[in-house]
Amino acid sequence: MTYHLAIGDRSYSSWSLRGWLLFEKFGIPVKCHTGILYSDDFQRLMSEFAPARLVPAMRTPEGEVIGESLAIAEALAERHPEAGLWPEDPAARAMARYMAAEMCSGFTALRGDCAMNLLLSYEDSAPRPEVMADLARIELIWTRARERFGAEGPWLFGRYTAADAFFAPVATRIATYNLPVSDAAMAYVNAHLADPSFRRWRAMGKAQNLIQPSYAKPYAERPWPGPMPLAAKIADGPSENTACPYSGAPVTDFLTLDGKVWGFCNPFCRDKTLADPEVWPAFMAMVAR
Questions:
Q1: Most CB atoms within 10 A, among 207, 219, 229, 263?
Q2: Contact criterion met (CB below 8 Å) for 205 and 119
Q3: 91 CB neighbour count, 10 Å cutoff
């Protein structure tokens, strides 16, 4: 029995990232179905998840379609209580739900001026006062959660919860647009940027290589502020391995890392690994043998 999740471009679709993290971070298997934003391909995708109109949209193993990120979170929490999507403490759980709901309905200046873009980062985006007001409110509620419930880990409530999934694209906006926040808020942002699940999502976006020109901004660029990936390059075969570390299928596409050539069953498997090799456990286990 499998869940199915409709998502948009990984580099740009902030709501898709939230939906995917609700599965990825809590160990709930899911099959993703992608559609290119602002195209007929997106309409094709959504026709397969009717009556949902936007991503993410989930189809349960029983065939029920659930749209909207909060509804998906609550459905998964109800169906998988052992996964711990929300904090165990009732007060923390209430706060986490409140924060997620505010994320869904608020911060319109930040979301409007600073659309998620995981392919670029800027030196200075000259944020408007309205964006700064949103950031101040975000820092206030982040600090409240961290001070009351976050002492035992880097996340809002100590361990990772659905609230962190909802704020992951806010963290990426702060990183992309180099928005001014306190050291404590930046530590929380850096926890997201270093998170292996987020890094895998970003690597898949780079492998997807979909460019939406309307997301580009006229600011000077800087390197992405997250961890520096291992230096891998596209290469020719033959490779050390004959089977793809992900699918087990015969290899056709290759990269080199630390002087050795490794093979994959298709360009996407190669390119997602090329983008950030160390966050793919199956690949690193193969390299370590």
A1: 263
A2: yes
A3: 10
| Pairing status of strand 3-7 against strand 30-34 | parallel
Return all residues near 260 (Cβ < 8 A) that are at least 6 apart: 240, 287
- Record the tokens describing residue 257, joined without a space: 């890392």
DSSP, res 54? S
The total number of structural domains in the chain stands at: 3
Q: Give the residue from 50, 82, 114 where a domain finishes.
A: 82
262-287 residue pLDDT tens: 999 999 999 999 999 999 999 999 99
Q: Is residue 225 part of a domain?
A: no
SS3 65: strand
CB 65 within 8 A of CB 12: no
- Contacts of residue 32, Cβ cutoff 8 Å, sequence gap at least 6: 4, 5, 6, 7, 20
In this structure, are residues 118 and 205 in contact, taking their beta carbons and an 8 Å threshold? Answer: yes
pTM of the model: 0.97
Rounded Cα distance between 281 and 22, Å, is 20
